[in-house]
Amino acid sequence: MISPGFHDFNGPLQLCNHANDSNPHNIYAFSPPFVRRGNDNDIPLFRRGFCSVRNYKLSVVCAIPQASIKNHFAPISHLNIDDSKNPSIETALILIRHGESMWNEKNLFTGSVDVPLTRRGVEEAIEAGKRICNIPLDFVYTSALIRSQMTAVLALTQHRCKKTNLCFQVPIIMHDCSKQAEAWSQIYSDEAKKQSFPVIRAWQLNERMYGELQGWDKQEISKRYGKEQVHEWRRSYDIPPPEGESLEMCSQRAVGYFKEHIEPQLQSGKHVMVAAHANSLRCIIMYLEKLTSCEVINLELSTGVPLLYIYKEGSFMKRGSPVGPSEAGVYALTKSLALYRQELDEMSC
């Protein structure tokens, strides 16, 4: 039976053909609700052996009507399923771990607790935006947690775009938790639709759920259980903390969502940014770089530091991570990205 909690929150934007549209290349979006940890009945969905991206998907599809949000955005009219085989397609993927959160600052286990950014986290997000401001974007994905959403939106305030007569596009955060929310957030101006792109929230990109460790000081937990035990919970691949998720369990949902929703966008020629969390991004990077379970547990991601990958011919190539105030001398830009930067500069003259 589907939990009532499915109807309480927004979920990931999914692409589909509208039932009344005869053109198979006109793609529209609808948003299923997602699972929450609202009460004790919801918690087992995150435990080993019971957590399945496939199960979530099937439950969600059965739980909601096949509603379209075609009035929010113009259809994505040039998605071609054969484009993934086109060797000329080259798209950018930006991954950003959220800026410092208030519990990062206090050294507390945060996990699935929804904690906002600190002042330093806000500054990190803005700085990240400056470093990626010349890289094209079509879609932005965040987790369902506010710290990743703040990071994405703050970074986008620095972004430049040459898709419209204006030198920017407006990010629109999707609100589809109810029919009323969907109706009230419709965009009726075709011009506004062209100047907008969706910010899609997905619980599958949430931070790893740390179970009974959430809210505790990390040093205090180390004293209680021992440093070796806490290190095993934090850095092993398949051992979860009490009532929490292992990295392997986090990978099932995060990588599953990436393969099903984000990678097809890259294959179709769209440029994507993902603002998420240390562990959900570790899982995605493990997939992108074909890391082993031993290699991924040693991967460290700094807050507010964007990573650039290029998707081409079915492969992901890492092009650097910034250490300075701009992308110059940091990212190994491809020829197409360099030309895009040049066109932006010419527009601003």
From TrEMBL:
Family: Belongs to the phosphoglycerate mutase family. BPG-dependent PGAM subfamily.
Residues with site note (Transition state stabilizer): H277
Keyword Isomerase tagged: yes
GO molecular function, one term: phosphoglycerate mutase activity
Active site: H98, E207
EC number of this enzyme: 5.4.2.11
Organism expressing this protein natively: Cucumis melo
Keywords annotated in UniProt: Glycolysis, Isomerase
Protein name in UniProt: phosphoglycerate mutase (2,3-diphosphoglycerate-dependent)
Binding locations of substrate: 97-104, 110-111, 147, 207-210, 218, 234-235
Classification via Pfam families: His_Phos_1
Single GO biological process annotation from the record: glycolytic process
InterPro entries: His_Pase_superF_clade-1, His_PPase_superfam, PG/BPGM_mutase_AS, Phosphogly_mut1
